[in-house]
From TrEMBL:
Protein name per Swiss-Prot or TrEMBL: Pecanex-like protein
Principal localisation: membrane
Residues that span the membrane, as ranges: 39-61, 73-95, 136-159, 165-192, 244-270, 314-336, 370-390, 396-416, 456-476, 578-600
Organism this protein belongs to: Oryzias sinensis
Top-rank taxon, per record: Eukaryota
Location(s) in or outside the cell: Membrane
Domain Pecanex C-terminal: 999-1169
Topology term for the membrane: Multi-pass membrane protein
Length: 1177
C-alpha cells in the first residue's frame, strides 16, 4: 500500500462527519445523510435551548430583584426537573409504542439502517429518534434529578451580577454568561435527551450508561470550586481559581470534542493510580480490583499515621506497613498451596516446576522466604526506632554521613546496572563489556560471568543495603516530629513505603534531595541543621522526575513521527510538507502539547499516526480497561504457551540483574527469536517481585509484519551479532531513533523451527522401494512392543508419556477415552458391516492408540509353504482335515478361516509367546492366501527374531538365553505376525511399492486410497492407528537415512526407533497431538507438508533447545500514543479497514506490531498471559 492510502474510506468519512458535530453539540443530530422534516430539527433545537430558557427565567427574575439568587436558582432547577420528567415519560411511552409496532410490522431491508420514517412531530419514531430513553429505571431517576440540579446550580454559577463582581466588567460578564450557557446546554442535552458518542472512549461498550454522566459531572466540578469560594473566607488563591475556571468553563465543549477530558471510569482509575504512586508510595496495579484494594489500604496507613500520638510509633508503623504493602501479599495463598501455580493455567498439562529450578529462591513461599522477610522487617523496625529514639538533637548531623553513603550507593548501583545492557547512556553508546557475536548459550554464559558477579553485588546493595540506608536517613529527619500535619503524615507514609516498593527510584529521589541540600549552603554542609527533609519535597521530586522522563520519551516519539514522515518515502504523504511546516511554525504550541500530556501523564496522540499531535485523555498505565490476558488464540499460540515457563525464569534473572534497565510499570519490551515475537509489559513492581504480561504476536507474517520484523532483526543484529568493533565511530547506536533499543539476550528453552524441501528424497525410486522394507520392520517393532506394553498393565500409548503417540489426540478428534478401558474381549471389537471412510475412522480414532474390530476371515493353506505349516494340530479345527484340498490349487481352501476367531488362545510352543499375542480381530483380514504367500519374502525374519529377543529381555528383566531361543523358534508366533503385518501392508496398497510422492503424502496424512483390505483395516481403529504410525515412523526413518546415511545394523535401527518413541512426535501440524507434544516439550517434532504454490513436499522439524532470545526496550510513550490513536480510530471513528494507513508498516515506530499487541478487540495477539508474578531478589 502506498503512503497516500485514504485515512478514512468514503463511507467512514461520511459517517465521521455525521458523528463529530453530534459529539461537539452533546447529542443533537443535525446532519442525517437523508431528508428529514423540519420539525425534527426544530424539536432538537428547542430541547437543546430549554435549559437556557429556564436559566434565563431565573436570571431575569433575579436581575429584576423579584427573587433572590438562591430562590431563582431553585426555580430554574425545578423547571428543568419537570422538563426532564416530561422528556423521559415521553421517551418511555414511545419505546413501548414502537416495540408493539416492530412486532407487527415487517422490516424493510432495502432502507438505510439509520433512516427513519417521520410521521409527525410527536410520533413514536420521532421521539425515539430524538430521545432514545434510558435502559435502566434507576438511571431515569438519577439522570432526571441531576438534570434539575445542574440547571439550578448552573444558573447560580453564571448569574450576571456574580460574574460582574468577579471580573469587574459588564462586557466580559455577558460573553462569559452566553458561552457558559452553551456549555450547560451541551451537558444537559447529553444527560437527559440523547448522549453523543465521546471521542474520549475508554470502554468498548457503555453497559451501565456512565457516558451521559461525564459532561454534567465536569460541570459540577467547576461549580463546586465557585461554591467553595462563595462560602469561605476571602482567599486570593480561590478568587484567582474561580476567575480562571469560569474562563476555562467556556472551553469545556472544545475539550470534550478533542477528547482531552477522560470518561469517569478512566478518570477514577487514573486518579487512584496517581495518588497511590506519587502520594502513597505504591505502584500501578495489574488489575482494577488490586488497585482499589491497595489504594484503600495505603490510605488507611496514612490516616493511622495522622492519629498516632507518638513519633516513635509513627516511624515503626510506617516502616512496617511500608515493607508489608510492598510485598506481593495477594500471592501468599497461591504460593502456600503449591509451587508455580501462577503459571499453571498457561502451560496446561506441563509442570512449570520442571522448567524452573525447584530450589530457586522466591518461586515458592517457603521457610527461607518467610525467614528472610521476617528478618528484614525486624531489622528495619529496630533500625528506624533506635535511630529516631536515641539520636536526639544530633539527628541532622548524623544525616551527613548517611547522605554520602546514599550518593555512593546510587553511583555504584547505576554504573553496574548500565554495564548489564548492550547499550549505555540511554541507548546511545555500545557497551564494551557486553559479549557480542555469540550464538552458543554456554559460551555466552562463560563470557558473561564477570557481568553476573557485578550484578550480584548490585543486587545486594540495592535490595539489602540501600533500603536500610534510606530508612536511617528518614528516621533522623526532624520533620517527623510534625506528623500531625496532613501533608507530613502523607509524606512519611510515602517515603517509608517507596524505599521498599521501588528502591532504585527512591534512591535517586533521595540523592537529588541530598544534592539540593548541599547546593543551598556556601559549603557542602553549611546550614545543614536548618534545612530538614520535608516529606512533601520528596513527593515533588518523585513527581518531577516521572514527568521529566515522560516529557523526554514523548519528545523523542514526536521527533520520530515528524522526521520519518518526510525521510521515509513509504510514509511521505502529499500533505507531509504542509504538516511539517505547520509544526515548525507552531513549535511553541507543539512543545506545549507535549508538556501538557506529560504533566497529565496522558498519552500523546498522533492523529492517524500523522504529525498531528493531540493530548489524549489520562488513563491507567495498562491503557486498557479489561482484564489482562485476553487474546485471539490460534494453533500457533502453542509455541508461546510452551516457552512461557522458561521465559519467566529468564526474565526473573534479567530483572534481578538489571539487564533490562530500570523496571517501571508501563515499560514495554520486545523479544525476537526466528519467527516468534514476544511482547512483554511491566504491570506492577514491588519489593522482591515484578508482575508482567507476556503476549505472543502472530507467526503468519503479512507484508507489513515482515517489513517491521526485518527492521527488528537489523536493530538486534547491529547490537548483538556483530563481533567486537574497534573505533570511536563504531560505538554509536545507529538505530537510536528507532522505537526499539536493544537491552540484553536471555537464555530460553524454545523450539527452533527448520523446514526442508524433500525434492530428491520423496521422489526417489530407490527411496520409495526402501520405504516398503522400512515399513515392515517398523510395523513388526510396533506389534511386538504393543504386546510388551499390554503385558506391563497398560497399552503402548495410553500411559507412556514419552511415546510418540502418547499425546491423546488426533486431527479433529473429540474422543477422550483411553485404551486402558478397552479389552480384547470387548464387544467393541465385533464386526462392522457398514463401510466407513478413512477420514471418519481417523476422526473417531484415539490419539496414538487404536482398537481393532474383526472383519472377514482369511483362508489359509495346507501347502508346505503355508503360513501355518508348523502349527500344532490341536490348534486346527476338526471339521477341516489337514489334508483336505491337496492337489486342488484352484480352490486353495487351506486352513479354516475361522481358526483364530473361534480359538483366540493359540498353542504357542513357548510359554512367553502369549505376551506377544495379538487380538483375534487382527488375524481376520479378508485377503486371498495366494496374495499373502506371494508377499511372504517381504517379511524380515531376521529383524523379527532380533526384535523379539530384545523385547523378551525387557519382559523378563534379565537375560535368559533359553527363553529367547524358545521365543525365536515359536513358528506360531512368527506366522501370526507375518499374517498381520502383510495384511496391513496390502491394506495400504503397498504390496508392490509406494509408487509416488503424492501417494506417500496421502497415506502419511491418513487419507489412504481405497484398497481391498482397507475396510477391514479401517474398521479396527487401534490397528489402523498402529499401521499409520508405522508408516509415519518409516517415512521419518527414510528421511534420516537419506540425510545421514543408511542404518548399518539391527542394533542401530532398534535404537533409532526407541529414540523416535521416546523423544519424537511424528505426525501432522494440524493434529492435537502436535499441540500437546509442544506443550509437553517433546525434544523433537516432525511433520510432512505440501506446498501447493510451489508444488513441493516439505519436512518440518522442531528441536527443543536452549537458545538466546534477544530483548529490547520499547519507547513506552510511543506505544501509549499509538494505542490511544488506535482506540480513537476504532471506537470513535470506527475505522476498522484492514488496509488503513495507521496499520501500515513503519520501520521506526513499529506501528503494525504495536497495533497487534493491543488488547482485543482492538488488537489481535495470538497469546496473552494472565498477570505473572516473578520473584526478583
Amino acid at each position: 500500500m502506498g503512503p497516500d492510502v485514504p485515512l478514512l474510506n468514503e463511507y467512514k468519512q461520511e459517517f465521521f462527519w455525521k458523528r463529530f458535530p453530534q459529539t461537539v453539540l452533546g447529542g443533537p443530530r443535525f446532519k442525517l445523510g437523508y431528508c428529514a422534516p423540519p420539525f425534527v430539527y426544530v424539536n432538537q433545537v428547542v430541547l437543546f435551548l430549554t435549559p437556557w430558557l429556564f436559566g434565563g427565567i431565573g436570571t431575569l427574575l433575579c436581575q429584576l430583584q423579584v427573587l433572590q439568587e438562591l430562590h431563582a436558582a431553585v426555580l430554574s432547577g425545578m423547571l428543568m426537573f419537570a422538563a426532564a420528567v416530561a422528556v423521559q415519560a415521553l421517551a418511555h411511552y414511545a419505546a413501548r409504542k414502537s416495540s408493539t409496532v416492530e412486532r407487527l410490522g415487517a422490516p424493510n431491508i432495502l432502507v438505510d439502517e439509520e433512516e427513519v420514517e417521520f410521521t409527525n412531530c410527536v410520533s413514536p419514531e420521532t421521539v425515539r429518534f430524538i430521545a432514545p430513553g434510558k435502559r435502566f429505571g434507576l438511571n431515569v431517576v438519577l439522570h432526571t434529578i441531576l438534570a434539575g440540579a445542574l440547571c439550578g446550580f448552573g444558573t447560580w454559577y453564571v448569574f450576571l451580577g456574580r460574574l460582574t463582581a468577579l471580573y469587574g466588567s459588564i462586557g466580559v460578564s455577558l460573553v462569559v454568561f452566553v458561552l457558559s450557557w452553551v456549555t450547560l446546554c451541551i451537558a444537559e442535552y447529553s444527560l437527559i435527551v440523547n448522549t453523543a458518542t465521546e471521542t474520549a472512549t475508554f470502554q468498548a461498550q457503555d453497559t451501565y450508561e456512565i457516558t451521559p454522566l461525564t459532561r454534567p459531572l465536569y460541570a459540577f466540578a467547576f461549580i463546586a470550586v465557585d461554591l467553595a469560594y462563595r462560602f469561605s473566607n476571602p482567599v486570593p488563591e480561590l478568587h484567582l481559581s474561580s476567575q480562571t475556571l469560569h474562563v476555562l468553563f467556556l472551553f469545556l465543549p472544545l475539550l470534550w470534542a478533542l477528547g482531552i477530558l477522560p470518561p469517569l471510569d478512566a478518570l477514577l482509575l487514573w486518579g487512584m493510580e496517581q495518588a497511590l504512586v506519587f502520594g502513597l508510595g505504591g505502584s500501578p496495579m495489574s488489575s482494577n480490583l488490586r488497585l482499589l484494594l491497595m489504594f484503600s489500604l495505603s490510605t488507611s496507613v496514612a490516616v493511622c499515621n495522622y492519629f498516632i500520638p507518638s513519633t516513635l510509633g509513627v516511624v515503626l508503623f510506617s516502616v512496617s506497613m511500608g515493607f508489608l504493602l510492598s510485598l506481593d501479599l495477594s500471592q501468599v495463598h497461591t504460593l502456600c498451596r503449591r509451587p508455580n501455580t501462577t503459571f499453571r493455567n498457561h502451560v496446561l498439562h506441563r509442570d512449570v516446576s520442571q522448567l524452573l529450578t525447584p530450589s530457586s529462591f522466591g518461586w515458592t513461599l517457603g521457610g527461607r522466604e518467610l525467614l528472610l522477610h521476617l528478618i528484614l522487617l525486624l531489622v528495619a523496625m529496630a533500625e528506624g526506632g533506635l535511630l529516631h529514639h536515641f539520636t536526639g538533637p544530633a539527628q541532622s548531623l548524623l544525616q551527613a554521613p548517611i547522605s554520602y553513603l546514599l550518593l555512593v550507593l546510587f553511583c555504584v548501583c547505576w554504573a553496574v546496572r548500565e554495564i548489564q545492557e548492550v547499550y549505555v547512556f540511554g541507548g546511545v553508546f555500545l557497551n564494551p563489556f557486553y559479549p557480542r557475536g555469540i550464538t552458543n548459550v554456554q559460551t555466552f554464559k562463560q563470557k558473561s560471568k564477570g557481568l553476573y558477579i557485578a550484578a550480584a553485588f548490585r543486587r545486594i546493595l540495592l535490595y539489602l543495603v540501600s533500603p536500610f540506608a534510606m530508612i536511617a536517613f528518614l528516621s533522623m529527619d526532624k520533620s517527623v516530629q510534625f506528623t500531625h500535619r496532613v501533608s507530613v503524615s502523607v509524606g512519611f507514609t510515602r517515603a517509608f513505603r517507596v524505599v521498599w516498593q521501588s528502591s532504585e527510584d527512591a534512591l535517586l529521589q533521595m540523592v537529588i534531595v541530598v544534592l539540593l541540600r548541599f547546593a543551598e549552603g556556601n559549603t557542602i554542609l553549611s546550614g545543614w541543621d536548618n534545612l530538614g527533609t520535608e516529606p512533601l519535597f520528596l513527593i515533588q521530586v518523585g513527581l518531577l522526575i516521572d514527568r521529566l522522563r515522560q516529557f523526554m520519551a514523548k519528545l523523542k516519539f514526536t521527533l520520530t513521527v515528524l522526521v520519518t514522515s518526510w525521510t521515509e518515502k513509504k510514509q511521505r504523504r502529499q500533505s507531509a510538507g504542509i504538516l511539517l511546516a505547520l509544526n515548525a511554525s507552531l513549535c511553541p504550541l507543539l512543545l506545549t502539547v507535549v508538556a501538557l500530556s506529560a504533566l497529565l501523564s496522558a498519552p500523546l496522540l498522533p492523529l492517524f499516526t500523522l504529525p498531528i499531535f493531540l493530548v489524549g485523555f489520562p488513563r491507567p498505565q495498562r491503557s486498557w480497561p479489561g482484564p489482562v490476558g485476553t487474546a485471539c488464540p490460534c494453533p500457533d499460540s502453542v509455541f508461546y504457551k510452551q516457552m512461557i515457563g522458561s521465559l519467566a525464569s529468564s526474565l526473573r534473572t534479567a530483572f534481578a540483574r538489571g539487564s533490562l534497565g530500570s523496571l517501571t510499570p508501563g515499560s514495554h519490551f520486545l523479544g525476537r527469536f526466528q519467527d516468534r515475537m514476544v511482547w512483554i509489559m511491566i504491570l506492577e513492581r514491588g519489593y522482591g517481585y515484578c508482575t508482567v504480561n507476556i503476549k505472543g504476536l502472530e507467526l503468519q507474517e503479512t507484508s507489513c509484519h515482515t517489513v517491521e520484523a526485518r527492521r527488528v532483526d537489523e536493530v538486534f543484529e547491529a547490537a548483538f551479532e556483530h563481533p567486537e568493533r574497534i573505533g570511536f565511530s563504531h560505538g554509536f547506536n545507529s538505530h537510536w531513533g528507532n522505537a526499539l533499543t536493544p537491552c540484553a539476550t536471555l537464555e530460553v528453552r524454545v523450539y527452533s523451527d527448520a523446514r526442508n524441501v524433500l525434492s530428491g528424497i520423496i521422489d526417489s525410486h530407490e527411496n520409495l522401494r526402501k520405504l516398503q522394507d522400512d515399513f515392515m520392520k517398523v510395523l513388526i517393532w510396533l506389534l511386538l512392543r504393543y504386546g510388551v506394553q499390554k503385558h506391563k498393565g497398560f497399552l503402548w500409548s495410553s500411559q507412556e508419556g514419552s511415546g510418540i503417540w502418547g499425546m491423546k489426540s488426533q486431527q479433529d478428534s473429540s474422543s477422550t477415552t483411553s485404551f486402558g478401558d478397552w479389552s480384547d474381549e470387548d464387544d467393541l471389537f465385533g464386526p462392522q458391516p457398514a463401510r466407513r471412510t478413512v477420514a471418519l475412522v481417523t476422526a473417531e480414532a484415539q490419539p496414538g492408540h487404536t482398537t481393532l474390530e474383526t472383519g472377514g476371515s482369511l483362508p489359509g493353506s495346507v501347502e508346505m509353504d503355508s503360513l501355518f505349516e508348523n502349527m500344532a494340530l490341536s490348534a486346527l479345527q476338526p471339521l477341516q482335515p489337514l489334508g483336505l484340498g491337496i492337489g486342488m490349487p484352484a480352490v486353495d481352501k487351506g486352513l479354516n478361516p475361522e481358526l483364530f476367531r473361534e480359538n483366540p488362545h493359540l498353542n504357542f510352543s513357548c510359554p512367553y509367546s502369549e505376551i506377544f499375542n495379538l487380538p483375534p480381530g487382527w488375524r481376520t483380514a479378508p485377503l486371498l492366501p495366494s496374495c499373502l504367500l506371494s508377499l511372504r519374502p517381504l517379511f524380515p525374519e531376521e529383524w523379527f527374531r532380533f526384535t523379539l529377543g530384545r523385547f523378551g529381555v525387557a519382559v523378563q528383566g534379565q537375560t535368559s538365553e533359553d527363553m529367547n531361543k524358545a521365543l525365536k523358534e515359536d513358528e506360531v508366533l512368527k506366522e501370526l505376525h507375518v499374517k498381520v503385518a502383510l495384511s496391513c501392508l496390502i491394506s495400504l496398497g503397498a504390496e508392490t511399492a509406494f509408487n509416488s510422492p503424492s501417494y506417500i503424502y496421502r497415506v502419511y496424512c491418513g487419507d489412504v486410497p481405497w484398497t481391498e483390505g482397507l475396510d477391514w483395516l479401517s474398521s479396527s481403529k487401534e490397528l489402523y492407528q498402529l499401521t499409520l504410525k508405522a508408516f509415519r515412523l518409516s517415512f521419518k526413518l527414510l528421511f534420516d537415512q537419506a540425510s545421514l546415511g543408511a542404518m548399518e545394523s539391527h542394533e542401530e535401527l532398534f535404537s533409532t526407533l526407541e529414540d523416535y518413541e521416546r523423544d519424537w512426535y511424528i505426525g501432522l501440524v494440524t493434529e492435537k497431538g502436535w499441540h500437546d507434544g509442544v506443550l509437553q516439550e517433546k525434544p523433537f517434532l516432525f511433520s510432512l507438508g505440501h506446498d501447493l504454490a510451489m508444488g513441493t513436499y516439505t519436512g518440518r522439524v522442531l528441536t527443543l533447545q536452549e537458545q538466546l532470545v534477544q530483548v529490547g526496550h520499547l519507547n513506552g510513550e510511543g506505544v501509549r500514543g499509538q494505542w490511544a490513536n488506535l482506540s480513537w480510530e476504532l471506537l470513535y471513528a470506527t475505522n476498522d479497514d484492514e488496509e488503513r494507513y495507521s496499520i501500515q508498516a513503519h520501520p521506526f515506530m513499529l506501528r503494525n506490531l504495536t497495533v497487534q499487541a493491543a488488547d482485543p478487540p482492538l488488537g489481535y495477539p495470538i497469546y496473552s498471559s494472565a498477570p505473572l508474578h516473578f520473584p526478583c531478589l
